[in-house]
Amino acid sequence: MGDQILLPHPEYFTVTGADGTLWRGGDQDWFPTSWQRRAGCGPTAAAVMTAYLAQADPDMAPLFPRCEMDQTGFTAHMCRVWNYVTPGPHGLNRPALFAQGLEDYGGACGVPLRIRLLELPARRALRPDWAAWSGFVRAALERGRPVAFLNLSNGRVKELDYWHWVTITGLEGESAVILDSGREFPIDFARWLATTTRRAGLVSVW
Fold this sequence. Notes:
single chain; alpha+beta; two-stranded antiparallel sheet; 6 helices
């Protein structure tokens, strides 16, 4: 499996449903409107990230001040984040749009956020290699920071939806551990990098 790095507080991603179901992160299907449910993967990932950071770092507590990790409270948090990390007609299809929205949300909460991103161009010759791509994720995780991952083409990784944002919480060799639709599961991250056909990106708070 190779080396492994996971965020130190996985319990900070657990959301409790009204019936006692334990979800891992949020689900865009919880949004109240059909457009939000269709386009809300980016705001959901941003809500998951900010909820984790608020619980893990006292200086970032205003990002999620009430820490309501039940489904109702977390959905309200998703809706607050939506007002800043707001999809356009094509969703949040560029990492810079996500990063700017996340920075704006932090500013509104009184928490200045230092944000870094790494883009994967569509042209294969211009792409970062596996060491650089996975290295960005590893560096963020080592700092205790989740990573938002934009995937416009899932390549040969059928477990991963295309044109979609998810949250990376760990690396295990060539696999990434992601949160999506209230679930946590691994994907073959190296295989994705080798087979994706469109641009992509990674965003994290530094």
